[in-house]
Amino acid sequence: MTTIRLVQGDITRESADAIVNAANSSLLGGGGVDGAIHRRGGPAILADCRKLRASHYGKGLPTGKAVATTAGDLDARWVIHTVGPRYSHEEDRSHLLASCYRESLRVADELGARTVAFPAVSAGIYGWPMDDAARIAVETVRETRTAVEEVRFVLFDETAYRAFAGRIV
Ligand code: AR6
């Protein structure tokens, strides 16, 4: 059984086996949680990302996929980078957002991670409405078979925390 926990705060301050990054396809950094993870985790994470771009992911990491690197100076063993979809009013991309959680947990299982911290993927710069992002995140984690014992959603502000809390009861 996977336990779901909610925390309000900065994911770069968390201690976990794996911390998930809401990255972009380039894997080379950005704003939001991605910027924060690279800032606090230090240059080792970017060095690993560059290696991935030079090998398996020459064209970048596709939306909905996940890949692991070192966690550098973070209090974790790995960062799992996943690329959420940008929210679209014209097209339902929910399956891609669900895939981010499924694929991240699959990578976590491959690594042997037992505790995994997630941000609200796509719900910042990529514009996904928070309530719907929370629904997809919680439903997908509940439906995914994984050896991960604890999934911790680390929500940056109270609005995000409340959206996730509303899905947990
Ligand atoms: N800890 C926890 N949550 C955070 C933190 C933090 N330190 N910082 C922001 N959030 P976003 P996206 C929240 O924009 O929407 C980047 O440029 C934030 O409030 O980080 O998937 C990437 O490189 C929001 O609720 O990710 C991509 O280009 C959630 O994390 C793009 O942004 C996700 O917001 C990805 O956009």
Give your account of this protein's structure.
This protein has 169 residues and is of the alpha/beta class. It has a single domain (3-165), classed as Leucine Aminopeptidase, subunit E, domain 1, CATH 3.40.220.10. The protein has helices spanning 32-41, 43-54, 94-111, 130-143, 158-168, and strands spanning 3-8, 18-23, 66-70, 78-83, 115-118, 150-155. The chain has a six-stranded mixed β-sheet, with helices on both faces. A hairpin with a 7-residue loop joins β3 (66-70) and β4. α3 crosses α4 and α4 (130-143) packs across α5 (158-168). The structure holds ligand AR6.
Describe what is shown at a glance.
By secondary structure, the protein is an alpha/beta fold. It has five helices and six strands; from the N terminus they run ββααββαβαβα.
Descriptors:
six-stranded mixed beta sheet, 169 residues, 5 helices, binds ligand AR6, single chain, alpha/beta, Leucine Aminopeptidase, subunit E, domain 1
| Second rung of CATH, namely the architecture | 3-Layer(aba) Sandwich
Number of helices: 5
Kindly give the count of domains: 1
Low-pLDDT residue spans: none
How is this fold's topology laid out?
Blueprint: E1 3-8, E2 18-23, H1 32-41, H2 43-54, E3 66-70, E4 78-83, H3 94-111, E5 115-118, H4 130-143, E6 150-155, H5 158-168
Parallel strand pairs: 1-6, 2-4, 2-5, 5-6
Antiparallel strand pairs: 3-4
The structure holds ligand AR6.
Ligand AR6 is lined by residues 10-12, 22-24, 30-34, 36, 84, 119-126, 154, 156, 160.
